[in-house]
Design brief:
four-stranded antiparallel β-sheet; 5 helices
């Protein structure tokens, strides 16, 4: 088993996502999850969920076994969407109230044009690898060998983050520096071998839009900025451990966080980072900026850390139910929804004062 891939994928979602193996072995034992629809269950909101976002006034969350669930009442009730795959889904984004994408294991990219009610599979890991090989062949012969290895492995590698730039344009990144983008609503996907090269094939865990660019957090200290042409630029790397997520502050600074409570703050768009002292030794896995400008970060135990001074210092807060979280989302009534190992819970307003 590829230890670095297992570590990145499992730690990213707090050992919640299925461990991965080498392509030739995995292909022989995996069920056909890319062609098996997600099974409907009333307990989908209690299973492992990896990400959530807004589609207009609707909330959309994604997770294991292809589960995508929707809420039209700010998270008080949930129902399951129709999904054509049963792979674990790791990330979701919407460009507007109707158009969005989700991504996950085996390189799956799903699209919706009806606010998440129904989804169709646009790309899988085989298509991702083929797109990267085509781009490498046209761009840099030295990258062809890396892309060919991905093709040989088959559809076993996960995509771990996705960003919707518009109803026609989206970008997804994942294991081994894989990156693909569409500019035509998903009718075609272009491989970004330049990202594969710039990231040294490190696993890419998170995407954040900030100011004039997209910022990427990855394994082995990897922090990058992606420009409009799809080129990744290396940022300062303040330590060698993995970063699992990024968020920004009211004053325009960046926060990057990851293994064993490591948290760093940048006031110059990632050119340099300063450590933030946090009384946490467990990995930091999810974060968000609240409407009032405060920042909430959670660790692997489910403990929350709240800052009201733009990320200079943090105090401990606790959710309604405590378990490992993978994503946070502020909602209209002052709560912060949290998803993770046991589905959905929240931080109540009174607990965030």
């Amino acid at each position: 088993m590829n230890k670095s891939l297992k570590t990145a994928a499992c730690l990213l979602t707090l050992s919640l996502l299925q461990p991965l193996a080498g392509g030739s072995v995995l292909a022989s034992v995996l069920p056909d999850t890319l062609n098996k629809p997600a099974v409907a269950t009333e307990l989908a909101h209690r299973t492992m969920l990896a990400d959530l976002t807004r589609a207009g006034q609707r909330l959309v969350a994604v997770g294991e076994r292809g589960h995508i669930i929707l809420s039209d009442d700010e998270g008080n009730s949930w129902r399951q969407a129709s999904v054509p795959v049963s792979v674990t889904l790791t990330a979701v984004c919407f460009a507007d109230e109707l158009n969005g994408w989700a991504t996950g294991h085996r390189g799956a990219i799903l699209a919706t044009a009806d606010g998440g009610e129904t989804w169709n599979l646009q790309l899988d890991g085989n298509g991702v690898a083929a797109a990267l090989l085509k781009d490498a062949q046209a761009r840099d012969p030295q990258l062809v060998m890396s892309a060919e290895r991905l093709v040989e492995d088959g559809a076993d590698k996960p995509l771990l983050a996705i960003h919707c730039q518009s109803a026609s344009q989206a970008l997804a990144v994942g294991a081994f520096g894989m990156a693909v983008m569409t500019r035509d609503g998903g009718q075609s996907w272009q491989g970004l071998s330049a990202v594969l090269e710039a990231t040294s094939e490190r696993h890419l865990n998170y995407l954040l839009e900030h100011d004039d660019g997209l910022y990427i957090a990855g394994e082995m200290g990897g922090l990058f900025r992606l420009d409009q042409q799809g080129h990744a630029h290396n940022l300062d790397e303040p330590y060698e451990g993995s970063f699992f997520a990024l968020t920004d502050t009211r004053d325009g600074n960046l926060l990057a966080f990851g293994l064993r409570g490591h948290l760093f703050r940048s006031s110059d768009a990632g050119q340099s980072w300063q450590p933030v002292m946090l009384d946490a030794t467990q990995s930091l896995t999810a974060g968000t900026r609240l409407p009032d400008g405060r920042v909430l970060i959670t660790d692997v135990s489910g403990t929350g850390w709240l800052s009201d001074d733009n990320g200079h210092s943090f105090s401990r807060v606790r959710p309604e139910r405590q378990y490992p979280f993978t994503a946070l989302l502020p909602i209209a009534d002052g709560r912060v929804l949290a998803v993770g190992q046991r589905g959905i819970t929240w931080f109540k307003p009174e607990g965030l004062r």
